[in-house]
Amino acid sequence: MRIGGSMKVVTGSASVHLSRRLAEILRVDLIVGEVRTFADGELYVRVPEQLDGKDVVLVQTIYPNDKLLELFLLQDALRDITASLTVVIPYFAYGRQDKRFKEGEAVSSRAVAERVEINAHRIITVDVHDKRAMEYFSLPAVDISGMPALARYLGDRGVEMIVAPDENAARRARIVGDLMKVPWEYFKKERIDSWTVETEEKTLEVRGLKVAVVDDVISTGGTMASAARILRDQGAKEVVAGCVHGLFVKGAKDRLRDFDEVICTDTVYGTNSKVSVAPEVADELRRLT
Known about the structure:
This protein folds into two domains: 7-145 and 276-288, Rossmann fold (3-Layer(aba) Sandwich), CATH 3.40.50.2020; 147-266, Rossmann fold, CATH 3.40.50. Helix 1 crosses helix 8 and helix 4 crosses helix 5 (170-180). The chain is 28% helix and 27% strand. The chain has helices at 16-26, 65-78, 108-116, 147-156, 170-180, 222-233, 252-255, 278-288; strands at residues 7-11, 29-32, 34-37, 43-46, 54-59, 82-89, 122-126, 141-144, 161-164, 184-186, 189-191, 197-199, 210-218, 238-246, 261-265, 273-275. It is built from eight helices and 16 strands. It is an alpha/beta fold.
């Protein structure tokens, strides 16, 4: 794969903002795939440019579900006209179901991985929820971190401490804290059900500080909201929520009202996307050349 005149970035409808920034950094052309929906709900996809012999980077987040189907169709459109096809999936949905928890369940991350790699030469994801999901790819596949993007923004905001909302996010909090050269900590939690979590009342030295709570994804926001309440009670001067993938479903933004600011990256683009992971994706593509 060569970065330059032979490379093109093609984007699906889910990742236009990120793809535009990526193409600018790499100084290559951006092609936006044509996507339409027929009256019966079926998708029509077309790549509106000749790409014979080109190295193509296809960027498409696969959330919500129709974006996954759109990715499959874009890959099919590109399969016979490219020299190489690198598929970048900024948010790899279904990455949480990497094993059977109950008899008869689908292993969703495996099912998606096996189908994505049918028409691809290599795969790049960003902060997949569980790294074990990457083991289901048989092609060269790498998961890169979106935490440096959060560190850039939070550093500019003058954040003085990083906190993970639970043990699973501690590794990510450490990355951000180390990059910013500020202390980091984590809470422990117990999940009661899909909507309810209980967070340990752990005492942290946060009085008078600007604190950020960071995680890979904010979905319903319950875990983050619990952390915010504890930090407020312990005297934090300002509390920011930061994540790579901002889904914000089922009233999440209402649950996050105790935060002074809620930010995410452009892996799932929305009004809270205040920083881009395009520099990290670009760095990984350069390593592949």
